[in-house]
Amino acid sequence: MGTVIDSHFLALTAIVTVGYQLFFFIITALLKFDKVTDFAGIMALPAGGFVHACSHLGSSFGTVSINEAVWVWTVSLPVTVVNASDRNPSLQAADIIGWIMWALGLLVETIADQQKLTFKNSPESRGKWCDVGLWKYSRHPNYFGEILLWWGIFVAATPVLENAEWLVIFGPIFLTLLLLFLSGIPLLEKSADRKHGSVSAYRHYKKTTSPLILLPPALYGKLPSWFKATFLFEFPLYNHSLPQENW
């Protein structure tokens, strides 16, 4: 098994990923409808999609679909390697823990996305920030769910991994770094600060609400800044647009 192109189908999955991203990009360009690219982003697994890069329909294939294909292929590395393996160990604690993490992550992401969609579609919510449901306990609960489910997949894959196969940990690490420092939270925080930064209620929400992990606002608001930055991902780059005295 696993003799097609390479022993773990890495090259084959890369070719397939780029191929279907190109297919969906063409559909997007022709129909002027970007939801199909979100669907393309989750074909690797039935777990919610992170992709938001295809919002600019005029972008070239090289700057949209290739970037999307890279993240899909990278975060799917644990799945690719496990599916290519001949090893079939008995059920272990890591399997159970990993799939519990995956299920919880998927549940959190799905609920958070639905709650935000409902909020955005409500006329009363126009011009406001989302602070309902899970969004009371995290400023980005959908990303928390996304990160949790992919780390869960990696944990569930560990009983099968050997030697260099452990490098597939780069998949969830890549996704985590992407959301924490590049195209995820930083961009959304900057946008929200620009829209609502002058509103005292928003600044209070931001100061008392965790950026990622679900936590009670009453608890999070009382924690010292150094603790938030060290253990709870409240990095300075998320708050550069607000007055420093609030942090």
TrEMBL record:
The chain crosses the membrane at residues 9-31, 143-161, 167-188. It comes from the Eukaryota. Pfam families: DUF1295. The keyword Translocase does not apply. Keywords: Membrane, Transmembrane, Transmembrane helix. This is Steroid 5-alpha reductase C-terminal domain-containing protein. It comes from Rehmannia glutinosa (Chinese foxglove).
